[in-house]
Amino acid sequence: MSNTMRLAIGSVFVGVLVLGIKFVAWWLTGSVALYSDALESTVNVATAIAALIAIRVAARPADASHPFGHHKAEFFSAVLEGVMIIVAALLILREAYLGFLNPVALNLPIEGLLINGAATVINAFWAWVLVTRGRRARSPALVADGKHLFTDVITSAGVALGVLVAIVTDWWILDSLMAALVALNILWSGYNVVRESLSGLMDEAIPPHTLDVVRRIISTEAGGAVEAHDLRTRHAGQATFIEFHLVVPGEMSVYDAHEICDRVEAALKKAIDGAKITIHVEPEHKQKHSGIVVLD
């Protein structure tokens, strides 16, 4: 089993654990804010399951129906997570509105905050694990799941602040007000997750700094060629697709041209994990005098 799969399975177990702890905190206090925080955690469990399914699908090898692989399945999961984050925020806003209309004093607020705080610590640690290791594994689903958990940490911190102020001032309406403010922050986070995931589904080019690495490798490793042009890139999950045309002298043999392609391909794969490379070799009269200059 891959590390990515282990992390995805771990997210499901962590999500269920945190959900149970937060519902205990709400049950003790009756706080609208703590209930909203627990409600947001139900989405954590659902999105963790969605990420697990997406990662399993994305790991499948290419087949006749999907010759480029199943990498984009992770982007669909990330989009789903973003949408569910937004839905959770809207549900929290609804509960905050109802609590605003009818504010009530809380039962055992300190005990509830301590229990909720334990869940927050677990979430914060696991979110850090998912984002750092997800980026290392180039898994959009894990990174999106980690970012989602960070919004839950922010939610919990805001909720705790609101409940503490309400305890000190006896302004129990602050319980609902803080829940509403945190929900707005969650809405913004959900929007960003959806936006980033849609860029992958739309075959957005790789980041500029990575593109510079690709250009430099082609320029330095394609000695013997004339130039490279029509460079196109896109990313899909853990795969990075790189395509370009390589112009070689007209009298060069197929064997020598192939050797250049092998050299460039090996260097690109060493520098960029998961690189999928397609090189179209052209004779010298196809030169465009633009693109990437090959250094001798």
Molecular structure report:
This protein is of the alpha+beta class and 296 residues long. The protein folds into two domains: 3-201, Cation efflux protein transmembrane domain (Alpha-lytic protease prodomain-like); 208-293, Cation efflux protein, cytoplasmic domain (Alpha-Beta Plaits), CATH 3.30.70.1350. It is built from eight helices and four strands. The protein has a four-stranded mixed sheet with strand order 3-2-1-4, covered by helices on one side. The mean pLDDT is 81. Keywords: Cell membrane, Membrane, Transmembrane, Transmembrane helix, Transport. The chain crosses the membrane at residues 7-29, 41-59, 75-93, 113-132, 153-171. It is a multi-pass membrane protein. Belongs to the cation diffusion facilitator (CDF) transporter (TC 2.A.4) family.
Layout of strands and helices, then pairs:
Layout: H1 3-29, H2 32-58, H3 73-101, H4 109-136, H5 140-169, H6 173-201, H7 208-221, E1 227-236, E2 239-247, H8 254-271, E3 275-282, E4 292-293
Major sheet, described briefly?
4 strands, mixed
Helix content: 55-70%
The CATH architecture classification of the largest domain is: Up-down Bundle
| Number of strand elements | 4
Name some characteristics of this structure.
single chain, 2 domains, 296 residues, Alpha-Beta Plaits, elongated, alpha+beta
